[in-house]
Amino acid sequence: MQTTYIETQQISFQDFKNQILEDYRLGKISREMSYLGRREVLTGKAKFGIFGDGKELPQLAMAKVFRNGDFRSGYYRDQTFALAVDALSVESFFAQLYADTSVEREPASAGRQMNGHFATRSLNEDGSWKDLTAQKNISSDISPTAGQMPRLLGLAQASKVYKSVKFEGSEKFSKDGNEIAFGTIGDASTAEGHFWETLNAACALQVPMIVSIWDDGYGISVPTKNQRAKADIAEMLSGFQRKEGENQGCEIIQVKAWDYPSLLDAYARAEHFARTESIPVVVHVIEVTQPQGHSTSGSHERYKNEERLSWEADFDGMVKFKEWILNYSIEIEGKEEVIASAEELDAIDEEAKKIVKAGQKNAWESYQKTITDLVQSVLPLVENLKGQNAEIETYIAQFNKLVSKAKKDIFHLTRKALLATRGTNSAERTQLMQKYNEIFEVEKDNYSSHLYSQSQWKAENVKEVQPVFSDSSEEVDGRVVVRNNFDKIFEKYPETLVFGEDAGNIGDVNQGLEGMQEKYGEVRVADTGIREATILGQGIGMAMRGLRPIAEIQYLDYILYCLQGMSDDLATVQYRTKGGQKAPVIIRTRGHRLEGVWHSGSPMAGILNLSKGILVLVPRNLTKAAGFYNTMLQSDDPAVIVECLNGYRLKEKQPDNLGEFTVPVGKIEVTKEGKDVTLVTYGSTWRIVMDAAEQLEKLGISSEVIDVQSLIPFDLTSEIAESVKKTNRLVVIDEDVEGGTSAFILQQILEKQKAFRFLDSDPLTIAANDHRPAYASDGDYFSKPSSDDMVERIYAMFNETNPQKYPAIF
């Protein structure tokens, strides 16, 4: 095991002095970055700025105990820390401020995130993992200021898992579980539920986690006393303080942001607790100042009085650090030693300004060159069209008057020129069109790539393996199929683990994991508390560290607790890092038609609309669900798999090749062929649609039934359009509310697949009522589409076109 910072500080005075001066130098560089960054925004070179001034000293102290293999999960205030661990340079700081789309110049997000959002690159260009133990790691920041907390839990828990779990390649992710996960959060955001849920779970699980709370007394303009039950968060957390000999709770350390030696001691102790004893630690950093206020959007003079502003000036961390250095002296062998003189520190101050100014200048020039090169490649081609339309000269003049040009201005000019010369067939226009297509592809990649995996392991590339059945294949309950498939999965993939409410000891509420904990142990098959947001967070964090977590949310209705993390964090990981990080979590849940307001909801449209970036898979039975698990464990895309809640006790034939067969994503299945109408559905509703199709056959209507299987991605080969081309009628049947998933499916079929060309009747959607289903089977019947509803409404389509053959029912 690595020794901790507190155990290794036996150094000479010269080394001590050098460390202090290097910290001062880094702190001043960071401060000057904040000052110049604000000026760049206010002079119009950047859109918005939010900076870490005032937090330099605690972040320097935190960086001293941050080792290779460790992870940070934070938000947008930690620039000094990022500098100190070499995850940020002056140039990359300003490149992000300008939204430079170059991964080389802005490796955190390639211009996709506003400034202050840091990340290291966990992946090689081909999407394979780097050796994360050989670098200091920052999981990509997000702006929702407590949203980073659930992920932090998973990053920390991974270390605990790696103490007992080994697999081929695991040495790239952990050195015997010796890593710490560091979290940072502003004090006002400790009022958020995600903070409390994460800390509670960490204290129960006893994971190596250090949470730093930057406490400046405000949440933008709202003082702390209006944020929480008590102004002092450490006092509020006193009940979390662990007791000697107990394996619960955390350590709480309070320290002042301007007290450099106390900060070093605080973080040394925190590291010792977390790394050596796997105890979560809260470091409450108080008396933090914010010299420039919250952001460039406003001035803190509007809500801070003169007394507060005067105090902040006096207790500015860099001011107090300078005072401490100048006042420090020690006698060694009869000689008084000091760290630095005022003149030496002034020289460092001046050097910091020069370094920052030079870095800003380089970043701005590199960013501007990208735009200048674009202008020079496009503008002459537009000018060549001046003789073909008089308006083009006006467009060029307007463009040339722009003081500052952006990519959008160049594209606007090009598109206006092409619009003005529509219908013209000339070599000059063709040349401009070719250039437009070329630059559009570049910017499409700059701004829209990597929403989903682009690696060789993306889910669409997983080869389909059909289930194998024989005369000896058993008819079993659906839950037995998924259970036995999980058994094969855990045997085949030692990096796979599952966790959720009741997932462990009793094998989940529907027995789909029966006996798995007993066979594979409590680390790999684990129970959790009732805390959905952090169950998801466990999955995200562990997946970022190379494990293959299956995060179980007991019911589909309860996934609403996870939607913030799914939408803001998991769905955007690959996108917001432009392929620099990934988190291939599988979210396991169960839902659709059953009984009760909170056990039969179908919030699929919410999931679809809020979670683009996550695959949404909706198998109609448990064999299909098992196949999707087998598929996704070969993929590096995240996914949610919704098992049919009413399918666990229905009989299915169990495949002989459990753990091997796969269900391809984005592929529909025609489960009944027909010639008169195409019926499209998914999940539990499929059984009812099949029943309705049989009734329609007796009424002289031949229905083709299609199980979508995968909502995202959706029917990649446009097979549904081919069905509509044959039947000329389309009905989408869904248990979501009107305008929900059925609207999404309809848009995909009619607009993307252009199936509207083949319709002889208006397309029809049959959805649930807009309220939650009332209780019991009667509630389901009157709240969601029944076979009677389907038969009558589909029959009405034919009555409208041929009332003699299909006389009205009512």
From TrEMBL:
Transketolase-like pyrimidine-binding domain: residues covered: 476-650
Entry annotated with the keyword Repressor: no
Alphabetical UniProt keywords: Oxidoreductase, Thiamine pyrophosphate
Domain of life: Bacteria
Cofactor: thiamine diphosphate
The keyword Oxidoreductase appears for this protein: yes
Function in brief: E1 component of the 2-oxoglutarate dehydrogenase (OGDH) complex which catalyzes the decarboxylation of 2-oxoglutarate, the first step in the conversion of 2-oxoglutarate to succinyl-CoA and CO(2).
PANTHER family for this protein: PYRUVATE DEHYDROGENASE E1 COMPONENT BETA SUBUNIT (PTHR43257), PYRUVATE DEHYDROGENASE E1 COMPONENT SUBUNIT BETA (PTHR43257:SF2)
Protein name, per record: Transketolase
